[in-house]
Amino acid sequence: MFTTLGATVLFLKISLAIAYRPVFIYHGILTGADSMKHLVSRIQEVHPDTVVYNFERFGGWSSLENAWHQVLEAQTNLKVICDLHPEEGINMIGYSQGGLLGRAVLQTYPDHCVKTFISLSSPQAGQFGGKHSTYDFLHLIFPSLVAKTAYELFYTYVGQHTSVGNYWNDPHHQDLFEQFSIFLPFVNNRLPCVNSTQFRETLIRLDRLVLIGGPDDGVITPWQSSHFSFYNETYDVVPLQESVIYTEDLIGLKALHESGRLHIIERENVHHYQWHRTNDVIDDVILPFLD
Is 217 one of the annotated active-site residues of the chain? Predict the structure, then answer.
């Protein structure tokens, strides 16, 4: 009897050891949970029995609501999921805007249970749909705007009611960016606030931070923003390791890198809308990090 019980317990431990952690997926702008169904299916096909939570809130036009509102509301969903998986924890994937907002969810949730966070083609250093963009991001949402003058809307009280305005980063108007932007300068600890220490410490708690992007994305501008790199005033992209956010370790990127927990992935020939819809891309750059 005791031998049988011991074997059963051993089998249960082995089963738990090889099971994949649950995954929480945060969709992009102007879409919703439905747009992530292919990714959900592929994860469950290759990693059978994986529990996947496909975030259903703030789909469609509601994805344009103020970033802080979305972050704090999404945090309540993540807390429910973490309460269901307090020991094993979960992995999290944020696509496009969802990668930036999802990262901010972690930063505002000191006791989060996320082990690996995957940022999939997300504007982590901001968005500026300038002359080098192969697809004018602005025209998706604001048909009459152009990048050169978009700051006139986004860097206002009204403009800061939109998620895009909250992470619009105009390299020619950094003074206005710091004066008016209520989101990105703070979650990137460019401007200090009462939560600056927490914003850094919550990211350092991750086992892995995975940043995925590529030169043929066509929407995230510059595409290197997916790796926390961004334009200077002459449209030259400052590499991550030369940027202030890294050299001063404002949110823990340097600490994660030096400890082997920051993974920066560049993949060519992938358009923005294909990162989560193409099996070979999913298999190569996402699944290896879902343990």
Answer: yes
Asked if the structure places residue 146 within a domain, the reply is no
Average pLDDT, the chain: 92
User: Structural domain tally of the chain?
Assistant: 1
Task: Say if 284 falls within a structural domain.
Answer: yes
Tokens at 285, concatenated: 């750059």
Half-sphere exposure of 119 (CA within 13 A, CB side): 33
**pTM of model > 0.85:** yes
Q: What is the pLDDT of residues 24-76, one digit of tens each?
A: 999 999 999 999 999 999 999 999 999 999 999 999 999 999 999 999 999 99
Active-site choice (27, 35, 63, 96): 96
Answer for the pair 49, 120: CB distance below 8 angstroms, yes or no. Answer: no
Q: Which of 121, 133, 170, 217 is catalytic?
A: 217
pLDDT in tens, 199-211: 999 999 999 999 9
Residue 179 has pLDDT above 90, yes or no: yes
Q: Which residues contact 279 (CB under 8 A, 6 or more apart)?
A: 42
- Annotated catalytic residue 272: yes
Spatial CA neighbour of 97 closest among 214, 240, 220: 220
Output the CA–CA distances (angstroms, integers) from residue 58 to 64, 121, 156, 180, in the order listed.
Answer: 8, 19, 23, 24
d(C-alpha 152, C-alpha 147), whole Å? 10
Task: Please check whether residue 8 lies inside any domain of the structure.
Answer: no
Print burial letters for 125-137: b (CB count within 10 Å at least 16), e (below 16).
Answer: bbbbbbeebebbb
CATH of residue 284's domain is 3.40.50.1820
Parent domain of 82: 23-135+191-289
Looking at 112, 227, 272, 276, which residue is catalytic? 272
3 state SS of 25: strand
Is 167 contained in some domain? no
